[in-house]
Predict the structure.
Amino acid sequence: MKKLSVVVFLDHEVFIAQCLEHDLCTQGTSLQEVKESFARVKNGHRQVAMMLRQEPWISLQKAPQRYWDLFDETTDRTTEEIDGEEITWGVHD
């Protein structure tokens, strides 16, 4: 099972979800909405890669270091399985 880490933070009253292992980002108006949006974007990327006969994620680099640092600062972390992938959400204050 693929494991992904995602840092979630507020930016001007908008929730941002940034994956660390792959530079994939989405936004939403609530924590629940940003999680759902991330799942859609993640699945869309995987479907496009499959259509192009590419390995999913291979075209995406790691997120910039500042997001890894934000994730390291989080104390509110939860893990859940979404479509066969284990996602650890780190919510930054």
